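Practice problem 4.
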């Protein structure tokens, strides 16, 4: 990967460098990503189902369950109207059955409180059973096009270099006069990097 040298700047990361890194990562992703049935999905319900199924479960295991589950419950109303036993039967073998119970209960709440549509609001999504910050971020960003972070718990296991790169890609310059300077954002990452060298 060849990145052009940036002009001297007081910013830690220039917008141009951030864009170059993003372009390289996206090109790598296009060349190497796996075909997954939920990739490119924009339906909030289908994104939600995939995210819940993928919690603590390998991707290879989820694929047939995802297809089967959606063939039985293709829409949020169909899931909400189903008997819990039907939902648990469709989930059978996937494990962690609380996920299925929460999915069913949340679908019923969406029907009652949100007119059958998953809300495009962080607080409203977090109020639903079994939906946490990562799932909210996935739904808001993938289905509704919002800038919402999807930060996995396993991110803590990333190397300091990876964390710094993720911070660079997500970072935007603070508003002038806000009193927030980029140096603060990177202090921990720099310390972690210097300890590894």
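Answer key:
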């Amino acid at each position: 990967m060849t990145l052009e040298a940036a002009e001297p700047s007081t910013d830690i990361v220039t917008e141009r460098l951030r864009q170059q890194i993003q372009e390289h990562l996206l090109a790598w992703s296009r060349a190497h990503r796996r075909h997954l049935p939920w990739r490119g999905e924009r339906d909030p319900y289908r994104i939600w189902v995939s995210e819940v199924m993928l919690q603590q479960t390998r991707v290879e295991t989820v694929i047939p369950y995802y297809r089967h589950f959606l063939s039985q419950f293709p829409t949020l109303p169909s899931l909400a109207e189903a008997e819990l036993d039907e939902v648990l039967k469709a989930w059978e073998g996937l494990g962690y059955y609380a996920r299925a119970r929460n999915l069913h209960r949340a679908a019923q709440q969406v029907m009652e409180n949100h007119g059958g549509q998953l809300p495009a609001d962080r607080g409203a999504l977090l109020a639903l059973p079994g939906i946490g910050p990562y799932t909210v971020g996935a739904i808001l960003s993938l289905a509704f096009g919002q800038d919402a972070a999807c930060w996995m718990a396993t991110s803590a296991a990333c190397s300091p270099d990876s964390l710094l790169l993720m911070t660079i890609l997500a970072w935007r310059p603070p508003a002038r006069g806000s009193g927030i300077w980029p140096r603060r954002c990177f202090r921990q990452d720099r310390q972690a990097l210097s300890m590894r060298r």
